[in-house]
Design a protein that fits this description.
heterodimer, A: about 230 residues, mainly alpha, globular, B: about 220 residues, about 0% strand
């Protein structure tokens, strides 16, 4: 009997977390990379008087999320490529979409861990009132991360076989996830206004929800044929 | 079938493209935009051609990925290249118009941004095919599906982000206020769609012959 969808997904997740808990390689490198990103942006967006450009914080937060997310995606699948463990995973008598779901969950957790530290940091450095509407901000970040990771996990998985995966991943991933970036940045910027523009943020949350539903469905549907050689 | 009607169709398209500039020259000036407005006839038509090509690329990619039909893959490449070509043409004509209408060559307007993003998506399709190594057709097909799926989201999100571009109802309004121009717009759209079909057919044939040649090389090596 083949194990159920949820069992497989959780097993893959557990495996990824166990590996990560031992080395913490991806967590530390991703976080440090995100911090470096924010620092580099501060040179561009902090004016002479030491005051950041208006609304820069929203853009910096999302760019740091997208860039560090790409790095984490590359690393998790690089790990799977050593000793062909991805092939072993796909050969296991388990449904392929469940393997994808497990990898996706791991990716979302990894990005969330980075964001938990990154968001207060950007708020601190750029005097951004991110936490005026904490629930809306969490919703934006969560939905944006899910959408980005949904496309990213599929693309990173399918690119494992290619030689040029490092450069192809961002080339393919960023244009497709542009709506996530626009929605995330504009939604967050709306929350930074005083008073926060809640209806605008809600509008973007709606778009992100639709994006997530469409792209998770598409990814679950195409994962099987894409990973079959 | 395409082989038989290709030449007559090409002649009709050539005649339409020969007539179009003449007709555009003769139609009356639109009251507010004057001469610049004449770009619109081709500008709008290229966007329609690009939209049609996106639909073809998305559908062909799905068929290729699930059925493995090589012909579907050929349609995928052909349409992706057409999207980039029409997209760049549209951006170029739009830039000329923007210079006159808004005073700048480049404006971060909703439609312009959207078109740029879509061109980037399908440049990604071409890149992954070229540099993806063996089996890259499949990866490109994924890009075709996801690119076609993301287009409406890009459309909507950029729309909400900023809009100074004429609203999308402009053609509908033309129909009532300026029927002569509206007819000409649709004439140009028809000409561009025919051109799309022709270029698609020619490009697919090239790809088919290329794959036939590859097969012959393989057979000769064995």
């Amino acid at each position: 009997m083949t194990p159920g969808f949820l069992t497989v997904a959780l097993l893959v997740l557990k495996k990824d977390l166990a590996i990560e808990a031992k080395s913490r390689e991806i967590a530390y490198t991703t976080l440090f990379f995100a911090v470096a990103c924010v620092m580099i942006f501060s040179f561009a967006f902090v004016k002479e008087e030491g005051v950041p450009v208006e609304n820069a914080a929203a853009g910096i937060l999302w760019i740091a999320v997208a860039f560090s997310g790409t790095l984490a995606l590359g690393r998790t699948f690089e790990r799977e490529r050593y000793s062909e463990t991805l092939r072993a995973l796909l050969l296991a008598p388990a449904s392929r979409p469940a393997v994808y779901a497990g990898k996706l969950l791991g990716m979302i957790l990894m990005m969330a861990a980075t964001e938990i530290l990154l968001t207060p940091m950007v708020a601190f450095f750029f005097h951004a009132p991110f936490f005026a509407r904490p629930l809306l901000l969490v919703a934006l970040l969560a939905l944006g991360t899910i959408g980005f990771a949904a496309v990213g996990t599929l693309f990173a998985a399918m690119l494992v076989r290619t030689r040029t995966r490092d450069v192809l991943l961002p080339i393919l991933l960023y244009p497709v996830t542009i709506p996530v970036i626009i929605a995330g940045v504009r939604g967050t910027a709306a929350l930074l206004q005083s008073p926060p523009e809640e209806p605008v943020a809600t509008l973007w949350i709606g778009l992100l929800t639709a994006f997530d539903v469409v792209f998770i469905t598409l990814a679950l549907w195409t994962f099987e044929p894409l990973m079959t050689e | 079938m395409m082989k038989k009607i290709f030449v007559p169709l090409a002649l009709v398209t050539a005649a339409m493209f020969a007539y179009a500039p003449y007709a555009i020259n003769n139609v009356a000036y639109q009251s507010t935009m004057l001469l610049v407005q004449k770009i619109f006839y081709f500008h709008f038509a290229t966007w329609m051609a690009m939209t049609a090509a996106i639909a073809v690329c998305g559908i062909a990619s799905v068929i290729y990925l699930f059925k493995g039909s090589r012909a579907a893959d050929w349609y995928g490449v052909a349409s992706a290249e057409l999207i980039v070509v029409f997209g760049l043409f549209g951006l170029f004509s739009g830039s000329l118009w923007g210079r006159k209408a808004w005073g700048v060559w480049w404006q971060w307007d909703a439609r312009v941004t959207m078109a740029t993003m879509i061109v980037l998506v399908f440049l990604g399709y071409i890149m992954v095919r070229k540099y993806g190594g063996p089996g890259s057709e499949k990866l490109a097909a994924a890009m075709g599906i996801f690119g076609a799926a993301t287009s409406p989201f890009v459309y909507k999100s950029v729309d909400w982000w900023r809009t100074i571009h004429p609203q999308t109802s402009v053609v509908k309004e033309l129909g009532t206020t300026f029927p002569e121009a509206a007819r000409l717009v649709w004439f140009c759209v028809a000409a561009f769609l025919l051109l799309t079909v022709l270029l698609l057919a020619a490009r697919v044939r090239l790809e088919a012959m290329r794959s036939k040649l590859d097969d012959m090389y393989l057979a000769a090596e064995d």
